[in-house]
Amino acid sequence: MLLPRHRAMTLFRSLPLTLLLGSAAPALANLDSAQEEPDRVTPIINELETDESVEEVEQSTLRGEPVAPPEIGTLTTGPAERTAAELTTPGSQSPADLAANPVAQIPDESLAIVMEALPSPQPAAPLSLLGSEVLPGSSARLAWSPGIQIPGLSQPTPVLAVNGIHAGPTLCLTGAIHGDELNGIEIVRRTIYDLDPEELSGRVIGVPIVNLPGFQQGSRYLPDRRDLNRHFPGSPDGSLADRIAHSLFENVIRQCDMLVDIHTGSLKRTNLPQLRADMNNPDVATFTQGFDRMAVVHSSGSSGMLRSAAVAAGIVAVTLEAGESHRIQEHQIEAGVNSLTSLMEKQGMTSRMFVWGEPEPVYYDSDWIRAQHGGILFSEVDLGAHVSEGEVLGYVADPITNAQYPIRAHSNGRVIGMAVDQVVMAGFAAYHIGTEAEIPAE
Ligand SMILES: [Zn+2]
Prior knowledge:
Elements: H1 5-14, H2 17-21, H3 25-29, H4 31-36, H5 44-49, H6 52-58, H7 79-87, H8 95-100, H9 109-117, E1 127-129, E2 132-134, E3 138-144, E4 157-163, E5 166-175, H10 183-193, E6 201-207, H11 212-216, H12 240-251, E7 258-265, E8 269-277, H13 282-287, E9 295-298, H14 306-312, E10 316-324, H15 330-346, E11 362-363, E12 365-370, E13 375-379, E14 386-387, E15 392-397, E16 404-408, E17 413-419, E18 423-424, E19 429-435
Parallel strand pairs: 5-6, 5-7, 7-10, 8-9, 9-11
Antiparallel strand pairs: 1-2, 3-4, 4-6, 8-10, 8-17, 12-19, 13-15, 13-18, 14-17, 15-16, 17-19
Pfam families: AstE_AspA_cat
Region (Disordered): 60-79
Keywords: Hydrolase, Metal-binding, Signal, Zinc
């Protein structure tokens, strides 16, 4: 059944999350209780060691001068550009395309000039994914199973695929690689269900909940307590995490031209909506230009992270961070959906007359400021605030002695991530301050 586009959108948007999540739905209902019972068995210090939000960014340095991303509208690399080049190949219009676009048959010289200037969309091929074939102009709900469970009890992970009527690049969206990061699940759902395959050029493949076991337990980790985002591209005969990573990478990720892996802050830290991107890589730097109203934080990425493995495999990839774990945050979700909408427009996959906001800065330098004392953290600044060197960001109060220890900014910058008020120990990374470095003139 074909619904008018606006009706279809309303319908999809009003669908309860449980419909999409299928068998995973009962876990959602339990999220509140899961939130009350964090993984008590894991000492906090262990989680910090594997916290990508802190360590991965801290260890990132630029090689030489920062790569200046090109101006908007001058995309010169990346899959969309390759596709656009194919689209303009003369004489490659198929009869089906001509039928769909009858204006091309009118032998009018001025029209012919226009047609030459505007690449006419090419019909898409069927998408072969996970043993199924998704026809052009259709969408499907598929299942990925990493094959690590008891076969009779195996619970496949839903994969949503939209194959546009026109040829184009393949964009992949992954959420909840850390099972307690919920905003990404909703960002993937809204983005995918907002697409009309009849108007899409290319393909969008979404895995809303990669770490289904972690999601069901409200846990960041896999059942073996490993961080899945340290095991890509994985291996078929390694640990549980290696095998899951390998299966996802081979069966889904290798299909992608572009990947956006969606995360949130960890351990009661929240992030301004931002991209983590290796700005040393010119293709990745160019790719970041497609995301509307999204700050970019340079980060080379760690070994085993999905985005690092994807880039190594020739897939342009970034991490999108939005908000904090264990929560569904409307504002952060809207920012993520808006940015993915702009990305698809930028890549020529959709045409919705997207209205761009002011470009956001690139933070080539960022620094985590840690609490020097244990106690209760009270913040004086808000996420996104611009701060000056020496400014008090918050206090750690000792609940026994009444001592109060200020935490100050080390430099001028912007609060791009921060801990929510909580009990902290000495060494806890409390404020992430981004510094906009000078981009050398061309
Ligand atoms: Zn994460």
